[in-house]
Amino acid sequence: MNKKKPTISIVSTLYKSSGTVTEFINSICNHASTITNNFEIVLVDDGSPDDSLEIARKAKAPTRIIQLTKNFGHHHAMMAAIENARGDYVFLIDSDLEEDPSLILDFWTKFEQNSDADVIYGIQENRKGSLVEKLSGKMFYSIFNALSEIQIPPDLLTVRLMSRRYVETLKQYTENSVFIGGLWQIAGYKQLPLRVRKKSSSRTTYTLTRKLELVLNSITSFSSKPLLLLFKLSLFINVITLLYIGRNLYYWFEYDETISGYSSIIISIWMFGGLLLSATSIIGLYLSKIFTEVKNRPRYSIKEIIDRSPL
C-alpha cells in the first residue's frame, strides 16, 4: 500500500510585495512539488498599498488569497495566514525573498529526521543590516529575555515548518495584542532550530516607531516583571529616604545642624517626579492591554477570500 503523501500549506503575507510575489509563487511551487503535489499557497493581503493583490490573483498556482479590510500589522496578518491554513503541515515564510523559498526542502528534511519534533524554526546565521540594526536586534532579545518568563532564541526568523497539532494549539491563543514570537514559544511542543542565511538585505518595512511599539508590546504581553521592578525600586527609594531622614534627625538633635538649600529640593522633586511619571506610564501600558483585551474585538477582518486551493 502506498503511503499517503502529506498536505502542506505554504503561508505568507503581502505588503509592498509587488516586486517579489510572482517569483516567490513560482519558486515555492517548484520546490514544494518535489515534496508533495498536495499543497496550497495561502497569501494574506495585509492592506498592501501597491498591486501585490492583483498580481497574486493572476498567478496560475494552487493559491488561497485572503484580503484583509485594512492593514492590521505583520503579526496579525501572519496569524490570519496560519489560522486559514488547512494542510497537515504549515510552512510559514515571508514573500520578500529574503528567505529563499528553497528552504522548504531543508526544513522538510530536518522534520523527517526528527519525527518527535513539531516545529522547525529558522535562526539567522549572520544578522543582516547596519551596525545600528544589529545592535538594536541584540538589545531587543536581551531585554525581552531578561524581563520575560519565556525565552526567545536570538535572531529568530519568520520561516518555520509546523505540525497540524502545533498549529491547532497556536490558534487557541486569541489575544488582540499579538507578539507572534512569544506565542510561538509559549505554545510549547518540541521545537528545533535550523540556521538560515538570508539571501538579501532589502530595506525593512519596520520603522523605528514600529520597532519601539514591538518592544513595548512584546514585554507587556509576556511579562509582569516591569511592575515587580517598580515595586522593588519604590522599596529601595523608601529605604534611602528613611536613612536620609534619620541622618538629618541625628545631626539635628546631636549637633543642632540643619540641612538647607534649594538645589537638594529641586533635585528631589525632579527625581521623584520622573520616577512617578515612569511608573504611571508602565502601569498605563498594562491597563491599556487589559482595556484592549476585555473588548474581545477580532484581531483582523476579512474582506474577501479567493480560493483556488485543492485542499
Would you write up a description of this structure?
This protein has 311 residues and is α/β, with parallel strands linked by helices. It has 2 domains: 8-210 and 298-307, Spore Coat Polysaccharide Biosynthesis Protein SpsA, Chain A; 225-294. It contains 10 helices and 8 strands. It has helices at residues 21-32, 52-58, 74-83, 103-113, 131-147, 164-170, 180-186, 208-222, 225-255, 262-294, and strands spanning 8-14, 39-45, 63-68, 89-92, 119-124, 156-163, 191-196, 302-307. The chain has an 8-stranded mixed β-sheet with strand order 7-5-6-4-1-2-3-8. Helix 2 (52-58) links the parallel strand 2 and strand 3. The protein starts with 7 loop residues before the first strand and ends with a strand. The mean pLDDT is 79.
Descriptive tags:
Spore Coat Polysaccharide Biosynthesis Protein SpsA, Chain A; 10 helices; 311 residues; 48% helix; alpha/beta; eight-stranded mixed beta sheet; 2 domains
Overall structural class, as computed from helix and strand content, comes to alpha/beta
Given this structure, which CATH class of the largest domain is correct? Alpha Beta
Helix content: 40-55%
The proportion of residues in beta strands is 15-25%
Largest sheet: 8 strands, mixed
Taking Cα atoms only, what radius of gyration do you get, to the nearest Å? 25 Å
Identify the overall geometry: elongated
Q: Average pLDDT value?
A: 79
Number of strands: 8
Brief overview:
The chain is α/β, with parallel strands linked by helices. The protein has helices spanning 21-32, 52-58, 74-83, 103-113, 131-147, 164-170, 180-186, 208-222, 225-255, 262-294, and strands at 8-14, 39-45, 63-68, 89-92, 119-124, 156-163, 191-196, 302-307.
